[in-house]
Amino acid sequence: MTIFPSMSTRPPQVVLVRHGETEWSRSGQHTGRTDLPLLGEGQRMARTLAGPLGEWHFAAVWTSPLQRAQQTCALAGYGDVAEVRGGLAEWDYGAYEGRTGAQVRAHRPGWNLWEHGVPEGETLAQVAARAEAVIAEARALRGDVLLFSHGHLLRVLAVRWLGLPPETGGLLGLGTASLSVLGWEAAGHRPLLERWNDTQHWR
């Protein structure tokens, strides 16, 4: 698939795609750097993204290095043009990798990822710094950009796009194989959340 600079007169948009379903996304386990493949249902979800993504002409397509994001990218039709960006990898959950929130709270009552973080993993500030670097690179292109990444990383990226504190990402839900759009008001001076957690294409 060939990508072209956007010819639209509207301000550039950044399109966010969370990867399709995996075994751990289905069970609710924290999946940071564990490199799980898509389930069959996740592959089906990924293929349905090709339709709605056809609305754009992208100046760049970037993907997380983890296979669940790269598989989603390829099945959506962008595997031959995508560039890997380490900054799009999921939050490193450290000692809580593979655990559900309920399992963590069983020994740490009241725990919340966004408030309390994880031992032996990344801090929220570190995740936010990675997201901000991706945002800076995308804004410098002055064209539409497509990102394939992960639930928590994309939630942080969205709120930092809006200039909000990274912990406010905890207020946003994001389903597998969802499509979201970050953009600008018509004058191009204020960032907007134009679409969020759209999964109509695969339902």
Question: Can you walk me through this structure?
Answer:
This protein has 203 residues and is of the alpha/beta class. The protein has helices at 23-27, 40-48, 50-53, 67-75, 101-107, 113-116, 124-141, 151-161; strands spanning 14-18, 60-63, 83-84, 145-149, 179-184, 191-198. The protein has a six-stranded mixed beta sheet. The radius of gyration is 16 Å and the shape is globular. The protein starts with 13 loop residues before the first strand and ends in a 5-residue tail after the last strand. The model is unreliable at 1-7 (pLDDT under 50).
**Quick one: how many beta strands?**
6
**What percent of the residues sit in helical stretches (DSSP H or I)?**
25-40%
The helix/strand series, from N terminus to C terminus, equals EHHHEHEHHHEHEE
**Low-pLDDT windows of residues:** 1-7
Q: Trace the largest sheet across and list its strands.
A: 3-2-4-1-5-6
In round numbers, the mean pLDDT is 94
**Number of alpha- plus pi-helical segments:** 8
Distance between the termini: 25 Å
* Biggest beta sheet summary: 6 strands, mixed
Helix/strand/pairing class, anyone?
Answer: alpha/beta
Shape: globular
Radius of gyration: 16 Å
Beta-strand percentage? 5-15%
Considering the chains and any ligands shown, give keywords for the structure:
alpha/beta; 203 residues; six-stranded mixed beta sheet; disordered N terminus
